[in-house]
Amino acid sequence: MRFLMKILAAFTLALAPLASYAVTCTSQAELGSLDRDALTAVTGRLASAVLAQNYALLQADLLPEEASAWDGIRAAAEQGMPLVKGGQFQVRNLYLLDATAQTAPETTQFFCSNSSGSLTVTITMNALPPGRYAVAIADAVGAPLAGQMGMVLAWDGAATTWKLAGLTLRPGVFDGHDGVWYWVRGREMAKADPWSAWYSYEAAHYLLLPVDFLSSPNLERLRKEQSDITPSAQNQMPLTLQTGDRTWKVEAVVLDPSLHEPDLGVVYQSTGLTDPAAQRTEATAVLSAFLKTQPGIRANFHGLWAVAELDGKRTPVMELPMAQIP
Questions:
Q1: Which of the residues 10, 113, 299, 314 has the least number of beta carbons within 10 Å of its own beta carbon?
Q2: Domain residue spans in the chain?
């Protein structure tokens, strides 16, 4: 999704010059009834289409400028279906964004404060064209995986209606535990098991919101607590592992939620094996060596992905639950 990818890239460009034009954000509680009702209605209609896998309706309501992004939006809806199955969407937050004063695409920050000014949510969008936008966050209440949806809407002046410009879906729980649980767990393990604590904070951040372009005081507090962990798992990369006479170089360890489980992806320098059986043997050896170095990870996460890196290209080899890793 071209539009969505621009938004998701915003955090990597957080230090870029921001738009100097006047932009505004109106939070849900401060919305006028006409705007609130209109945004709630379109969010509900599109959320229902996701639940029903009604691709015809989603495509019909797609912003014309994002027609080339349709395949990505359809894939997001299709792949997110297990997350929302059995639930009914309920709007959690709405934000109305006005960037009509801009004259060209800009990296734009919106500061969305409540009526008292005691809470400010920041929404950062990269290369945002002039216009009116809205962000809707909704929860699939009753779904076993507590699915949550982030939706970006854009005002289509020609059609005088709101259109779909971006869609993401995420689980709200791993193994029945939500983001707050993982946050508390990370805090509890920070001194005894820094590596498990670090990735528990990663899981908490992932589960608390379905989008990465929104920040709040709570999320900033979470990141601050995570950055205070010593030694930091992130700062110990690359990691050298030794197994007998073999040495493995791990380039990165990242949270991998692709199976809707709390997995970690272990990215290692491959020796260039091409035989599938040999690749799996190599991958198993790397994962086993990693867990021997960090035994706490075994007890606190579901499994590990082995990701081989060769000449700058990363290739997933396999995922193994912890019980299958020697």
A1: 299
A2: 24-170, 177-232, 237-321
